[in-house]
Design a protein that fits this description.
heterodimer, A: about 325 residues, alpha/beta, Rossmann fold, five-stranded parallel sheet, 11 helices, about 10% strand, B: about 350 residues, 2 domains, five-stranded mixed sheet, binds thiamine diphosphate, binds magnesium ion
Chain lengths: ~325, ~350
């Protein structure tokens, strides 16, 4: 909360608006999924929202993000077009990937959303390449790459930390530690549980952040971004957060027994939206909810009435 | 017994009989137990033999190589073949080479089980088959079971083999049900099976294309066309003998694969038949393969992506130079799968 005093009313509203946007879009996906019109594996971001919103709100429009398959949040927080996201989930030609990718593969180049992979760790190194390119091209944009706690077990995470630090790349590594890789707890996968401390061994700063506190994420991200932009090199942020619904799909997963009802309840009580409610005053929150409801309605209606892709092999697909 | 239950039966049986067999992989102790194929394994054998792997596919594969050279028999399990791409270095450069590279002093008896996804918009990175990629490499053995009986028999055979074996199973077949003996038995590696005898045309099929070929053959029977269906079962070593024997009899060849065409197993089979028995062929061979593109996510195009019984039927008619004078009876399989993964 230490950063909060400095926040302008505009930033406070933007943070809250984006949190609501991410939540309302996904709540609508949850509500409508059973109609079986959206047919691709959704990895919902509900519970994680403060991470993408905090980081993306600290970024400039010309900065780039490399999210992962838990993709909707970053896409929207960075300003990706809502209608194109929904059309993609409905498998339509007007989708952000023209229907070829589905939920796990979203992109909006205008907004700086550079594409997402369904392979864990798949785009961490892409982010480095983009950062390298930006510098070689003399640009002042920076890059943020996000990934889960599980992804930090992949060799490429370690290779990337080393390379980015070695070359002082303008990059922000954002680990969204939700304690689980699918349904396996981090204790059963890692021997040392402080992911942010991996940074020390590679010579870059690593910080632990409350990933359910959008103001805290915004503040840490803003500092790391300023550092990157001024040539100070990369930073690793470990944002501790929690996935509320099942790993993939739109349901709760209490029946599986890999986590306790008590644990889920405790994290629900720390919901990032509830915690951020104070960012807007009076009935501003209600106005935001209503404004978003209208655009979500529109995006869903639009997606439903859009054409399916016609061609099996897109032009230019074959090498 | 269902296909996925047969895999479980083989796994538990091998672990009971051979203390050298152990399981390792990402998410294998998950309560869903890899679609039930490992249910009860952790409870029965404990975390010492059912080892949860961090997300470290290349290292896990190398760990299996090292353990195998020490006399253990690792079974490494992946929820998707797509994830095996991260471990190609260990599989291709190390596991496949180890026996030869040091003059046959060590063997690498490990098995990699990997699942092929299909349906519900799983998209370009969760639906690949890739069996031909592995079959290209000397030093690997590649198995693609098509029914519950062979799912068990081939896995048991793989877990006794001295070489690294890639065992590719199609999620689309997981719910298929057929009698499976409880007793221990082996399906021989390197032997194809004639699953339907016939006289006019040979269909060689891979994995999920076997049931599709059987449907196509059955649909053509009333028109007087007799198709022989061969389940190839093992891509490497390939049972060319079985294919040649059939083609010499029928003179016509259709190969139905569940993978891309270029440089694939269908082309390989046709090439070997052409080399060995060109004169036996009465018609140009036909291959049925995936369209030459990534697998799309959108339901509208995904539904049209996969060839099946209807396409095989058309190919058979093509080899006998007959027009589609009969109504094509066999619809291609589209199984009910309400996702998401
Ligand atoms: C290389 C690779 N291995 C395995 C998988 C299967 N898989 C998909 S998501 C996932 C969990 C990853 O967990 P984490 O990185 O913590 O991200 P989260 O889903 O928790 O946000 C796994 C194992 C995959 N997609 N890619
Ligand atoms: Mg996680």
């Amino acid at each position: 909360m230490s950063h909060e005093g400095a926040l302008s009313a505009e930033v406070r509203r933007r943070l809250y608006y984006r949190l609501r946007l991410l939540r309302q879009v996904e709540e609508r996906i949850v509500a409508d999924y059973h109609h079986k019109e959206m047919r691709s594996p959704p990895h919902l971001y509900i519970g994680h929202e403060a991470v993408a919103v905090g980081v993306c709100t600290a970024l400039r429009a010309d900065d780039l993000v490399f999210p992962y398959y838990r993709s909707h949040g970053w896409y929207l927080a960075k300003g990706g077009e809502l209608k194109a996201l929904m059309a993609e989930l409905f498998g339509r030609e007007t989708g952000c990937s023209k229907g070829w990718g589905g939920s796990m593969h979203v992109i909006d180049l205008k907004a700086g959303v550079m594409g997402t992979s369904a392979i864990v760790g798949g785009t961490i190194s892409h982010a480095l390449g983009a950062a390298l390119a930006l510098r070689m091209q003399g640009k002042t944009s920076v890059v943020a790459v996000s990934f889960g706690d599980g992804a930090t077990e992949e060799g490429v995470f370690h290779e990337a930390l080393n390379f980015a630090t070695l070359r002082r790349l303008p990059i922000l590594f954002v680990c969204e530690n939700n304690l689980y890789s699918t349904n396996t707890h981090i204790r059963d996968r890692q021997a040392q549980l402080d992911i942010y401390r991996r940074a020390e061994g590679y010579g870059l700063p690593g910080h632990l952040v409350d990933g359910n506190d959008v103001v805290a994420v915004y503040g840490e991200a803003a500092q790391a971004i300023a550092r990157a932009r001024s040539g100070g090199g990369p930073t690793l942020l470990e944002c501790r957060t929690y996935r509320v619904l099942e790993h993939c799909g739109v349901n709760a997963d209490d029946d599986l027994g890999y986590r306790t009802a008590n644990e889920v309840a405790q994290w629900r009580a720390r919901d990032p939206l509830t915690q951020a409610r104070h960012l807007v005053a009076g009935n501003e929150a209600e106005r935001i909810v209503e404004e978003i409801r209208v655009s979500v309605d529109e995006a869903f209606a639009d997606a439903r009435s859009s054409p399916f892709p016609a061609s099996l092999v897109p032009e230019g697909a074959r090498p | 017994m269902k296909f996925r239950e047969a895999i479980r039966a083989a796994t538990l049986q091998a672990m009971e009989l051979d203390p050298a067999v152990f399981l390792i992989g990402v998410g294998i102790t998950d309560p869903r137990a890899v679609w039930g194929t490992l249910s009860g394994a952790l409870q029965q054998f404990g975390p010492g033999r059912v080892i949860e792997g961090p997300l470290a596919e290349e290292a896990l594969t190398g760990i299996c190589v090292g353990a195998a050279t020490m006399g253990l028999r690792p079974l490494l399990i992946h929820h998707r073949v797509d994830f095996v791409m991260l471990s190609m270095n260990q599989l291709v450069n190390h596991a496949a080479k180890w026996r030869q590279m040091f003059g046959m002093q060590q063997t690498v008896p490990m098995v990699v089980r990997a699942v092929v996804g299909r349906g519900w918009g799983n998209g370009p990175q969760h639906t690949q088959s890739h069996h031909a990629l592995f079959a290209h490499i000397p030093g690997l053995k590649v198995l693609v079971p098509a029914n519950p009986y062979d799912a068990k028999g081939l896995l048991l055979a793989a877990l006794r083999d001295e070489d690294p074996v890639i065992y590719i199973e199609h999620r689309w077949l997981h719910e298929d049900d057929a009698p499976v003996p409880e007793a221990y038995y082996l399906t021989p590696i390197g032997k194809a099976a004639v699953v339907r005898p016939g006289t006019d045309v040979t269909i060689v099929a891979v994995g999920p294309m076997v049931p599709e070929s059987l449907k196509a053959a059955a649909a053509l029977e009333p028109t007087g066309l007799s198709a022989e269906v061969i389940d190839v079962r093992t891509l490497r070593p390939l049972d060319l003998e079985a294919v040649l024997q059939s083609v010499t009899k029928t003179g016509r060849l259709v190969v139905a694969d569940s993978d891309w065409g270029p440089c694939g197993i269908a082309g390989e089979i046709i090439a070997r038949v052409a080399e060995a028995a060109h004169d036996a062929l009465k018609a140009r061979p036909v291959r049925i393969t995936w369209p030459d593109s990534a697998v799309p996510s959108s339901q509208a195009i995904e539904a049209r992506f996969y060839p099946g019984a209807a396409e095989i039927q058309a190919a058979i008619l093509q080899t006998v130079a007959r027009q589609r004078d009969t109504e094509l009876l066999a619809p291609s399989t589209v199984k009910k799968f309400d996702g998401p993964f």
